[in-house]
Amino acid sequence: MAATALEIRDLSKSYVVNGAPLPVLAGISLDVAPGEFVSVVGASGCGKSTLLRLIVGLEQEHDGRLAYDGRPIDGPGRERAIVFQEHRLFPWLTAVQNVEAGLARSDLGKSERRRIALEHLALVGLSNFAEALPKQLSGGMAQRVAIARALVSRPGLLLLDEPFGALDALTRSHLQREVLRIVRQEGLSAIIVTHDVDEAILLGDRVVVMQPHPGRIAEVIVEEEGPAREPGTPEAVALRRRILHRLGED
Amino acid sequence: MTSTTSAVDLPLPSGAVARPRRLFLPHPRRLLPVLEGLVLPAVLLGAWALTSHQGWLPAQILPGPGSVLDAFRELLASGELGDHIRASLSRVILGFALGGGLGLLLGVAMGVSRAASEIIEPVFVWFAQVPPIALAPLLILLVGIDEALKVLIVAKAAMIPLAVNTAEGVRNVPRQWREVGRVFGFSPARTVFGLVLPAALPTVFSGVRTGLTHAWLTLVAVELIASTEGLGYLMVWGRQLFQLEFVLLSVVVIALIGFALDRGLNRIEARIGAWR
């Protein structure tokens, strides 16, 4: 296995606003190793969502190098899946049909698709809700279905764009731990983009702190497994203070 | 682990999963609004009966409900009413299928492609301003006064709302959903049939309803001008014979059929949009 799953080298991106280029990302360099969970934390407007959209391939124009498994990224691909902040399930499909939509690229038979989709619903604890429509699911359940949809095609890299931001605190806390468990269990690389510092500390093997105007990396903090991960421990509080301090400078 | 975390989420509301529905009959609970809806028709019927009974208007001009009922029985028994209804319905169905299908295709083209929209839309907006019935003088010269005339005019009436609504529905498919299709690699066919059309369906369907209503109204108008059968013709015939009960009977039957068409589509629409 290559030592680098995702390679980002000197990545820059501008939008054209009122005829003038507006830089949103400048000189981003970051490698993500196989099986590594990276948190990207920053205030809104720091370009962190744009970074994810570039990695997943929804946006393509950029300067610098962006490659997965050694191949430049030139659009969406099976090996990179994303969970958005909103669940984005198709409301006219049942939960299991929504998960099956994640298999659009595969040439598996109908019954095989169904079996794999049900397996992934079970992975997120929703076996009993396979036939429910999205409007019948709570926000947390809908987001679980979206996670199952992202995982069903067995991607190597899971991208999470503030996926728990719209959920209540208790549901959020449960889902964070569940995603961590699944990512470890499946041996995935993952990147979560968030403005919640505690979430970044809990999930990330490394925390990438970004600053805005234009979006750039201020600091990359390597975390060990252990008390520094758990909110409320002295180590976590110290780390939190350090990140907040970084976010405060501009 | 999963069982404890699932407990955080709200349970599924009981009975929320698809239960059998009746398409056309109202639920007993909904009978009261239906009864309320009958109040005004009953009052009008009473006023009509009273007017003709008191002789405020001569019977040749306003026949009473009784003579209209007699006319109904007579035409029903002779099979004439059935023939007229059949003639009108088959024209509306044919015209609606033709115009609606064309409108759907045009609408999808205008909604999907900016180029198609720029080519089609100006002509389309211009054409939409022409009342369908105003095409009759020109079309009579081109296709004569037979079935083709009625079908084409009805088709024109149905096409416009379908094209407009389809284009709007297709254009307004949320970008968020389109992005999901791109991320998971939907084929062009799946994007159209599995994403764009289902998302646009509620809007398209209100175009279907408007289109069918327009088709029905226009058909009756064209039958007044040029036909030898159909409900519009029955009206003309009744007027020429000065048998106004046939005219009134036609009015009632036309209204009832239009009402039934609209309500039927309303039910289908509610069912199609059940996921909302």
TrEMBL record, chain A:
SUPFAM superfamilies: P-loop containing nucleoside triphosphate hydrolases. SMART domains: AAA (SM00382). It comes from the Bacteria. Residues 6-239 form the ABC transporter domain. Keywords: ATP-binding, Nucleotide-binding, Transport. InterPro entries: AAA+_ATPase, ABC_transporter-like_ATP-bd, ABC_transporter-like_CS, ABC_transporter_ATP-bind, P-loop_NTPase. The keyword Glycoprotein does not apply. It holds the Pfam family ABC_tran. Gene3D superfamilies: P-loop containing nucleotide triphosphate hydrolases (3.40.50.300). The keyword Iron does not apply. Belongs to the ABC transporter superfamily. This is ABC-type nitrate/sulfonate/bicarbonate transport system ATPase subunit.
TrEMBL record, chain B:
It is a multi-pass membrane protein. Residues 85-265 form the ABC transmembrane type-1 domain. It is found in: Cell membrane. Gene3D superfamilies: MetI-like. The keyword Membrane applies. PANTHER family: ALIPHATIC SULFONATES TRANSPORT PERMEASE PROTEIN SSUC-RELATED, ALKANE SULFONATE ABC TRANSPORTER-RELATED, MEMBRANE SUBUNIT. This is Sulfonate transport system permease protein. It comes from Xanthobacter agilis.
